[in-house]
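Quick one, tokens below:
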């Protein structure tokens, strides 16, 4: 990494440089930020991300902050949330920034060393959507979609295997709708365990997990059977 970008482009005014960089493919930005210390500082700042948001999602700049426990955060955080809403969480063709922020919040909580109980996380998400005017039914639907999207996009490693096992083994919390756990999400947890992580089980753990699945779902898919 050098102090300034080499060549004529390195001497451009910062606002023009930002205009150029934000037109480049998003997947190249990490590599681009390593060209020079000056470019790296631009990617750490707010102006580049604000420009990128205005270019890609023009109406997002007019949205007000919302009440509730999940904040909107920096311009970089907002860009990540908008990208998630557009590409990772199904929302009927709409780009909902709050959905993206909720996805990021849940993913970060699940990656902690001490993961909070899923009932607490689910309740926080429900409260956030209700505070922003969603009905209980809509809040539950959005929360379920976000849970499934996060679970589907976790890395396939031992940490994820232990997390899914933990979620599968959590006791049932008898909470009123919409705070009750989604069976659609729990099904996805077991499905990931018995398909993507089958080889991580030892015999005893597999049969314990399968017994837990059978106590909740009948019949269980044939793809879950056999170890």
């Amino acid at each position: 990494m050098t102090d300034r970008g080499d060549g004529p482009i390195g001497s451009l005014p910062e606002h023009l440089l930002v205009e150029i960089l934000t037109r480049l493919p998003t997947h190249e930005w990490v590599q681009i930020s390593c060209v020079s210390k000056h470019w790296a500082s631009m990617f750490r700042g707010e102006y580049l991300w604000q420009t990128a948001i205005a270019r890609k999602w023009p109406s997002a700049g007019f949205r007000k902050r919302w009440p509730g426990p999940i904040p909107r955060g920096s311009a970089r955080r907002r860009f990540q949330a908008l990208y998630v809403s557009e590409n990772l969480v199904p929302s009927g063709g709409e780009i909902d920034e709050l959905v993206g922020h909720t996805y990021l919040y849940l993913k970060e909580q699940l990656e902690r060393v001490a993961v909070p109980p899923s009932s607490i996380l689910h309740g926080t998400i429900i409260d956030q959507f209700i505070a922003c005017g969603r009905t209980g039914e809509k809040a539950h639907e959005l929360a379920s979609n976000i849970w499934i999207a996060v679970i589907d996009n976790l890395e396939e490693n031992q940490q994820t295997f232990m997390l899914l096992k933990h979620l599968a083994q959590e006791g049932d919390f008898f909470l009123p709708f919409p705070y009750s756990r989604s069976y659609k999400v729990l099904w996805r947890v077991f499905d990931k365990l018995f398909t993507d992580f089958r080889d991580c089980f030892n015999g005893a753990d597999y049969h314990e997990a399968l017994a837990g699945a059978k106590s909740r779902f009948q019949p269980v898919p044939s793809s879950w059977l056999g170890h």
